[in-house]
């Protein structure tokens, strides 16, 4: 799921025109060594915190259907996680970095979700909303100054971006669908006391059911002839 969120973020920023203008979007840790090797305008989207939103944890299991509408598996509810990114701009001059960061900010605040067309893998399969919160004051994550200290770099302008995304639950395969139908046999007797053959209930899809959903008794195959053994007497 994490790499799918990364791809959604990359596509969203790509639509803002960054890649078309020659700006590279990367997900590296902006360490001092990395910064010294940078030689082109870059927007760095660094994931530094992952936390589960336990208030949205569900229970039970849902059904998974195939293209024909048959239940093929049961899946536990998804679990939701907050992914927090530190977004920075890197260029040769501070003015250029601020221009890039402004372009990124305008792109991210224009939507509060990752558009469905940009989602891939399990995120697209689940069809759930992936929330996006940019530069929010209530981000429950380490402070930017602590992140820069841990990276060994100098503090610079950055955006805090939180993505709330679902992690698909565990799927368990179920037995294949019933195709033979339910067989109902009765042991009734007619007015003369003779036994009356039972009726078999069949699904309409089998093609042998009547208008009332029943069909006549099925003929049983004749028992195989008994083989004579040595020592048996002739009749």
Automatic annotation (TrEMBL):
Region feature Disordered, mapped onto this chain: 193-235
Organism: Streptomyces kebangsaanensis
Superkingdom classification of source: Bacteria
Protein name, per record: DUF4255 domain-containing protein
Pvc16 N-terminal domain sequence ranges: 4-179
Compositional bias per record (Basic residues), positions renumbered to this chain: 225-235
